[in-house]
Amino acid sequence: MIVAALNAQLIVERDEALGRRPYERQDQSSSRNGFKLTRVPGLWGALTLRKPAVRRGALRLPLLDALKTAGKGLVDVLAMRFWLRGTSTRAVAEELNSALGSKLHASTVSTLTNALEPTLRDWESRPIPDGICYLFVDALYLPVRRPGFTSKQALLVALGVDENARRHVLGFLLGDRESQESWEALIENLLSRGLKRENLRLVVSDEHKGIEAAVTNRLGVTHQLCVVHMMRNARARVATPDRRPFLLDMHAVYWAPSREDARQALGALQGRWGQRYPAAVRIVSHRFEDHARFFEQPQSFWTLLRSTNLIERFNRELRRRLNPAGAMQSELEVQKLTWSVAEAQERRWAGKRWSARAGGLKPHQMAYA
């Protein structure tokens, strides 16, 4: 029905362009010359229409022009959105070509998404939100193609939480490795965009020398190490029959009502398990003060600050979107996909404050997560 209606309208436009009825002749004018089949991609799939033809000159058919323009626009938008969802350029082209009868190439999909670059650059240079008091940093590695070779690159990510417990994606940086210099470059970018050292209370991360050195040199802020990472490392050194009681004793340390209670619980753990599992006890005792910095903050933030779960969840979403695309063709491709994930996450967080009941896990769940 749709095809018949469109074909009828094309005939009307042909007759209007020629200025005469069928079989009516005019001197030195073009004449009808049947039809040619043409495929037009669109919302209903690829439509095969009967395009009117003439013997001399070109015939302008506004409806056909509009259909082709609309179809191409639809294909372009869908290609861009599917790619930003993490689908590879080849898969995007194959699926759209199959569904809509378009003639996309994988390289065309990348070219289409390059139109996002100005928006991406504006996002990268936007001011840091006011009142950021907690900074979460972490990195993930992904393959990026360089001229002549493919190598693993470190994507450094920074999230922030303000004094009202609202979460924000602050920025990211792609570097050759997770070094002190690359972390300092990311921190300098945040500072240049308005991150205020005097407002920061804690920087939360796993135990990494490059991160700790960069934070000390550029921010001078107290560092909170991830309790959950430490608990996982200690748990791996305990025999299976003893794991649950050992975990409960660790929970008594880092889920204590105060720092003093935590120190007493740590002494009890050392006395109970020190002879049987000295390696595990050393891990729990090592840098206790750096794992217990969260006790100095308002208690409503303790669950959030004990671990890097906030940024690890964000990085898992990044991996879910980046992995299907395979090796990234360029740094720009990494930036476009990371920006897309960050924008989606910001929309989910908009206007919602983090709460321990909504964002926290029970202690045994965190240890086994």
Short summary:
This protein has 369 residues and is an alpha/beta fold.
Considering the chains and any ligands shown, give keywords for the structure:
single chain; about 375 residues; five-stranded mixed sheet; 7 strands; about 15% strand
Task: Give me the secondary-structure topology.
Blueprint: H1 2-18, E1 32-40, E2 47-54, H2 62-84, H3 89-100, H4 106-113, H5 117-124, E3 132-146, E4 149-162, E5 167-175, H6 180-192, E6 202-205, H7 209-218, E7 223-225, H8 227-235, H9 240-254, H10 259-273, H11 278-285, H12 288-291, H13 302-305, H14 309-322, H15 331-349, H16 356-359, H17 363-368
Parallel strand pairs: 3-6, 6-7
Antiparallel strand pairs: 1-2, 3-4, 4-5
Give an overview in words.
The chain has 369 residues and is α/β, with parallel strands linked by helices. It folds into three domains: 2-116, no CATH class; 126-220 and 318-352, Nucleotidyltransferase, domain 5, CATH 3.30.420; 227-306. It has 17 helices and seven strands. The protein has helices at 2-18, 62-84, 89-100, 106-113, 117-124, 180-192, 209-218, 227-235, 240-254, 259-273, 278-285, 288-291, 302-305, 309-322, 331-349, 356-359, 363-368; strands spanning 32-40, 47-54, 132-146, 149-162, 167-175, 202-205, 223-225. The protein has a five-stranded mixed beta sheet with strand order 5-4-3-6-7, with helices on both faces. Strands 1-2 form a two-stranded antiparallel sheet. The longest helix is centred in the N-terminal third of the chain and has 23 residues, at 62-84. It is elongated and about 105 Å long. The mean pLDDT is 83.
